[in-house]
Amino acid sequence: DTGVSQNPRHKITKRGQNVTFRCDPISEHNRLYWYRQTLGQGPEFLTYFQNEAQLEKSRLLSDRFSAERPKGSFSTLEIQRTEQGDSAMYLCASSLARGPGNSPLHFGNGTRLTVT
Amino acid sequence: DQQVKQNSPSLSVQEGRISILNCDYTNSMFDYFLWYKKYPAEGPTFLISISSIKDKNEDGRFTVFLNKSAKHLSLHIVPSQPGDSAVYFCAARNGYQLIWGAGTKLIIKP
Prior knowledge:
In chain A, strands 2, 4, 5, 6, 9, 10 and 11 form a 7-stranded mixed β-sheet that branches. A 4-stranded antiparallel β-sheet of chain A has the order 1-3-8-7, with no helix packed on it. Helices cover 0% and strands 48% of the residues of chain A. Chain A is an all-beta fold. Chain B has no helices and 11 strands. Chain B has strands spanning 4-5, 10-14, 19-25, 32-38, 45-51, 56-59, 62-67, 72-77, 86-94, 97-100, 104-109.
């Protein structure tokens, strides 16, 4: 168990550019979640996969955001035409299928995005 | 619409004493509540959880109490240790989602 791995740790980009983040979950975990956290707030849910299927998306996830988990293992989160309001910490978490109450989420250390 | 609230942004406690972190919620449909701890530059780490059908869950130095009628839960840490200094988040389960509070920064003084 090497934990949830996220890359890159930091990303600075100019407004209007596209960025992609990667998450490698704990290997036996079939659920994968993306959250976003801004300063002074708790994480906000973005989207969730069970295996390769994207089962739920928050209304926070505008059409500029897309997430994939093509083989049910790692996942990518892409933001197109970045805006300054996208600056945040993007957190990935994984869990077993029993759900976040009785199978707690394990988080990666996040990717901090700064849009200038 | 803040469904989960942590009204104390920070809390300072003497080492060895009890730390009590509070959380209030508005949605009576939440069925699980969790506490996470976060150090700077790291992701949140799960601490302890409680089902909505229980009123207390204990794990070592950590105890979570749930008062459903008041829609209130609290995390007790006793005795507090320097390594407990971190931001503590309360989260509530709604389907596949966790709804999070804004966090309380706990500072343990020597």
